[in-house]
Amino acid sequence: MNKPGSKMGPIDFVLFSTVMLLVAVGVIMVYSASSYSAYFNPHIKDSTFYLKKQAGAALVGILFMFITIRMDYHKIKKYTKIIMIVTVVLLLAVFAFKPINGARRWIQIGGLPSIQPSELAKYVVVLYLAKSIENKGEKLKTLLYGVVPYLIISGFYAGMVLAEKNLSIASVIMIVTLIVLYVAGARKSHMFGLMGLVSLAGIAGIAFEPYRLDRFKSFLDPWKDPKGDGYQLIQSLLALGSGGIWGMGLGRSRQKCYYIPEPHNDFIFSIIGEELGLIGCTIIITLFIILIWRGIVTAVRAKDTYGTLLATGITSVIAIQAIINIAVVTGSMPVTGVPLPFISYGGCALAINLMAMGILLNISRQKEYE
Length: 370
Fold this sequence. Notes:
Helix content is 66%, strand content 0%. It is mostly helical. Belongs to the SEDS family. FtsW subfamily.
């Protein structure tokens, strides 16, 4: 078995290639989806505005990814507490800034790129879980000592994200926590009970917030309010239907022309369906399936428990977000603000996701061979 600091092997080339393909598709589709609205926006008047920002974030993210590919992932352990504290400070700092569309999720200072601390919080929880569970061992099988403390810590971060009016990312944090605990060996009876509690918490989060309840009602019947809460989903379905099998052609979407609000963000998958058709959507879904498969393989072959749990958590974050985003765009679940990893517009999210992929690729370099 290799030891921390030993010579590393080659990276998982399939995983690396898949990530780079997703990033490339994302940059192209952000430009295609945003060029019309950016050009006719009186404050921008530049069709390449979002392209330049997304491409810049991609370059920065790729740089961070190569740094974390070369850095032994075990070194992250000693910085975990510091990263957790910094994340809490950032999550609190968002409340010092004006809300955008009723939510406080971003830190914007002058002309600098905005920072979204909730994107970092997802991975910080994974870092904490991997480090702590490795030390806990068989005690994880107890409920009060083994499982509840992790739910409290994860719930604390999820609660702070929820206070920013971001139920979707808070849900991702809790779902990923349950996945990591299950893989680590928590009892199935405990996990089924906790899944029920998390589900009830999610239902409560919808029921006690009027705008979320309206979104859920519009999901059940979007045509009941086609110009209100059901508008975005209807336009998304129209885009997907218009694309057919082969699509209308890259750059030829009609729904991006002020029909779908901010089409380069959470609903970019519907623009992919309209322009590249069922074929394009299938390719994107296949790329995510390959990424998840190689993430699972990396977790199974990791040389220690810490690497296994870290790979599991990172892969789960990407998998859960991709599943939720595609389900929302296709009308399979209520509308929620979960971006499509590597593809939706968002420089902070892209850079952090690529950094996490670098850690996953570093784990793939340190396999346990028989």
